[in-house]
Structure formats: structure tokens, C-alpha cells
Amino acid sequence: TQKKYGNILKLAKSMATQFQSFILTQQSLGDAFAELGQKSPDLQQEFMQNSETQKCLSKNGESLLNALNFFVSSVNTLCNKTIEDTLITIKQYECARIEYDAYRSDLETLAQMPRTDSNTVRVDDAQQNYQQHKEEFEKLRSDVIVKLKFLDENRVKVMHKQLLMFHNATLAYFANNHQALETTLKQFNIKPKSPTAPIVAASWLEK
Fold it and tell me: What integer pLDDT is reported at residue 28 of this predicted model?
């Protein structure tokens, strides 16, 4: 699952980066049209119309880019914090299980040896080590169960919100509905950023 979400994150970031470049090109084209319109009286109306069109499209594009960046940021948090934290706990649990099995095996082996003073001391030590690692193992097993449940609940909650936002923003953009785009940004508390703002850095799941 983490790899699949990592792939979504990678693709969404690639889309945001390419779309960011597209918007900047649109803005430059709009400026170029406007400049030529001022210097070409015979084509001024045509140049200015195209300039305004590109500026309008780039403005809507900035809104969609803000939505894209919000999507990327949220999925990045899910992948690199929530999922990663759960995976770390699972790895700790696996190590604890191996150690627990080893100490249990040692205790079982010593318990079968002849009852001498030396062996009794060794059995007592082994029993303490076994009990300590058993408690650590059981605690981590409980932690894993809790974190897996939290991860699943959080994943559904986050992705439900993000997918709805992504869908609404994309539809509004291609319908050239600036008002719907702005409404979507406000609905999901997305703060506008400059189209030149950097996209989230690459995550460990994308590498």
C-alpha cells in the first residue's frame, strides 16, 4: 500500500511541476501579447484579446496549482509521517519478536539441563531476560495493532477529503469556472501561493 501511495505522490508532484511550468509560460505569453499590442496599432485588439485570455487562464491555473500543491502536501504527510511511523513500529516489533523467540529458546534449553546450582542461576537469569523481552514484544505488538488501525482510519479520512478537493478543482478549472475554483479553495482552507513556489521535496517512497 505504501508503494502505491508513494507512486500517487510521485505522479501528482510531476503533474504539479509540469503544470507550474505551463502557467509560467502562459503568463509570459500573455505579457508578450500585451507588449506587441502596444506596439502594433493595426493588431492591438487581437493581441490584447489574446493577452487577456492567457492571463485569465493562468489565473485559474494558479488556483488549480494551489489545489494540486495542497493535495501533494497532504499525501506527502500521509506517506512520510503517518505511514513511515507505522512502518518503524512494525520493524521494531519484528526485531523484538526475534529477540523474544531467542530468549524463549534459551530458557527452554536451560530448563532441560540437570538441576545444579550453576544451572539454576543461569535459568533464573534466562527467566528474567525472557520475561523482559516478552513484555517488550507484547507492548510493541499492541502498539502495532493500534497504529495500523489509526493509519487505516487516517488514510481514509485524508484521502476522502483530498480526492474530493482534487476532483472539484479539476472540473472547475476545465469548465473555466473561476468562482467554483475559488469556492473549492476556501472550502478546503487552501491558502494561495505564488506559482513559482517550490513543490514538496522528493519522499523516500518515491526513490
Answer: 95
Three cell numbers, residue 184: 473549492
Residue 204 lies in a domain: no
pLDDT tens per residue, range 125-152: 989 999 999 999 999 999 999 999 999 9
- Write the pLDDT tens digit of every residue in 69-112: 999 999 999 999 999 999 999 999 999 999 999 999 988 888 88
Total domains present in the chain: 1
The H-or-E segment that residue 181 falls in is: helix 178-187
Are 180 and 168 in contact, with CB atoms under 8 Å apart? yes
Pair 152, 136: CB distance under 8 Å:
no
Q: Give the CA radius of gyration of the chain.
A: 29
Whether the CB-CB separation of 100 and 137 falls below 8 Å is answered with yes
Per-residue b or e along 171-189, where b marks 16 or more CB atoms closer than 10 Å to that residue's CB: ebbeeeeeebbeebbeebe
pLDDT at residue 194 is higher than 80: no
Cα–Cα distance for residue pair 173/159, rounded to 1 Å: 21
DSSP secondary structure letter of residue 81: I
Residue 57 belongs to domain with CATH number: 1.20.1270.60
Cβ burial 59-92 (10 Å sphere, 16+ → b, else e)? bbbbbbbbbbbbbbebbbebbbebbeebeebeee
Distance CA 95, CA 75 (A): 29
Q: How far is CA 139 from CA 20, 93, 195, in A?
A: 47, 9, 47
